[in-house]
Amino acid sequence: MSYTLITANRNYSSWSLRPWLLMKALHIPFEDRIEFFTAATNYAAFRSFSPTGQVPALVDGTRTVWDSLGITLYLADRHPGVWPADEAARAFAQCAAAEMHSGFSALRNDCTMNVGVRVEPHMPSPALNRDIARLRELWEQGLDRFGGPFLAGRVLTAVDAFYAPVAFRVRTYGLDVGQKGQAWVDHMLSHPAMLQWEEEALAETWREESHEAEIGAAGRIVEDYRAR
Ligand SMILES: N[C@@H](CCC(=O)N[C@@H](CS)C(=O)NCC(=O)O)C(=O)O
User: What's the pLDDT at 38?
Assistant: First the structure.
């Protein structure tokens, strides 16, 4: 098999990070193709390689697999280690990944991923506070039940990949996720693949207007470590 994983900008593309990190952590080889997008033109361009006009998309020979969850399920059919081997840990990991895929909309909208900046956020909305409280509860449950340092046990699995963009968000916005949650964030941010993603994000000089506007609306930018 020969995979090509198509993703977008390291700095902003939270959905892209999930399968990219998972494949890196599991040592599944792939050709790494980055497509920079602009809000105005990307749909038509992205439709040429992804049926939804969105990334990530995984090309496996003549087959295209799309959506970060679809890609994860596809990889799980072909490679060991995508989900935890232990049944209880696997049930937790799959439910938590599903919850992230369909929920946490306030966190997603109010704290968009922007790896290279640090933001002093405006007053959090009640919906954002609710999302953060749920995150803390969920992460603590996983870490306590399965012993850490990852959410469902000793090794990184898809559930960590699904929450990986949140690790960057916690740092960017200084979110309080509690001591245990912060230990997971720190552990994730020091993972070699996350460090690689961060390094590549910081090297990008390209800016996308709508994402920059979102971060401006979320709070005051206090640091910007990105290359100019
Ligand atoms: N549910 C999809 C969401 C993918 C998504 O929103 N991707 C963004 C990049 S992070 C994108 O392609 N945006 C371009 C657009 O929506 O036009 C997934 O899990 O893959």
Answer: 74
Q: How open is the CA angle 151-154-159, to the nearest 5 degrees?
A: 30
Say if residue 147 is in the same domain as residue 93: yes
Phi/psi of residue 12, each to 5°? -110, -25
Rounded CA separation 54/7 (Å): 9
Query: For ligand 1, is residue 52 a contact (CB within 6 Å)?
Result: no
Q: Which residues contact 176 (CB under 8 A, 6 or more apart)?
A: 132
Is the C-beta atom of 15 inside 6 A of ligand 1?
Answer: yes
Q: How far is CA 38 from CA 4, 44, 156, 212, in A?
A: 22, 11, 32, 12
- The 3-class SS string of 141-156 reads HHHHHHCCCECCECCC
Residue closest via CA to ligand 1's atom 6 equals: 54
Q: Is the pLDDT of residue 42 over 80?
A: no
The whole-angstrom separation of Cα 14 and Cα 74 is 19
* CB neighbourhood size of 4 (10 A): 15
Look at ligand 1, atom 17, and give the residue with the nearest C-alpha: 43
Model confidence pTM above 0.85: yes
Q: What is the CATH number of the domain that holds 96?
A: 1.20.1050
